[in-house]
TrEMBL record:
GO terms for molecular function: hydrolase activity. Keywords: Hydrolase, Lipid degradation, Lipid metabolism. InterPro entries: Acyl_Trfase/lysoPLipase, NTE, PNPLA_dom. It comes from Photobacterium swingsii. Residues 10-225 form the PNPLA domain. This is Patatin. The keyword Transmembrane helix does not apply.
Amino acid sequence: MAKDKPKISLLLSGGGARAAYQVGVLKAISEWYPRVHHSPFSIYCGTSAGAINATSIACYASCFRLGVKKLEWIWGRLHSRRIFKSSPLGMTGYLAHQWYARMQAQHHERPPFGLLNNRPLRELLNQVNNYERLEKQIMAGNLDGLSITASSYKSGLSVSFFQGQPYLSEWDRAKSKGRRAMLNTDHLMASAAIPLVFPASRIGRHYYGDGSIHQLAPLRPSLKMGADKILIINLINQKIEPSEHTQTPGLATLGGHLMDTIFSDTLTADLEHLDRTNRLLQTLPNDARAKLNMKVVDHIHLFPSQSFEPLAQDNYCYLPPMTRALMRMIGISPQDDAAITSYILFEPSYIKSLIQLGYEDALSQEVKLRNFLK
């Protein structure tokens, strides 16, 4: 990759099954390049399901279209059973184990709590990801860095584990830090461990959960790794109609609001801060910027043009029966609580719809995106 070209970062936010939308966007972008062309991105940053997508295509930084095709192939064949144990025996056995473990004496180590057993996801990631390719892409100069963000339940900090070029330095900032690591499935499982839904994952001696929980500055990993431009593919849910204000919010409604807040609100605030900083820097001469060791960082913020909720409602019936029963038990209905359902609906018809939506949204902004990626 030419050294004088700007470093473009791809930032993928979290959102469970919603992350299929990101695959559609990347599919459209990949079609603008020759089959053997390197990736337009040299920096990849992901959180939760976005971290899984970022890692998959970063492994193929030297052949962007191949990486995206493999990612699309994986998502196109997903079922709930490939993400969590969804059979009646698997779910009841897991919940019984969780209950039994908490009835034991305190000196027994208890497993981290989660409503769903995501061991199948770990097995899938071990099958489809070739982590050795990451270091090869870095050594070949095709990849500057990959960052996976998780939240430490011990320290309450947002921790960005990164693997990249030797010149990248670790960082310590308010409520966040960056640590160099050889990335593997443990980091992805930690970043994608949605609170209460999936159990926390252990890295070293500490447990970590979904990277969006304590992530106050989602843009920081991209900036710390030297990005000149950032393409953000966000999974914020577009509300079509405001909910009935007289209706009492239930557990699932509150959970949906909390998850939307965790996955999207901090990014909006961080983008506002970046815009203010850019406007300030543009008023300064170049030598003043150099003294401050700061630069203007351009960005594009892509997000779905439609709400996820109608798609989740239409495809709710495809969830495994035992999963639907569990959701009913905790107060989730398909009609009123589609926001929270949209995070765990790993079914082919829903995923296909999200990929198509992302593809169409990217094509609608083709000229803008092409100019940005030059």
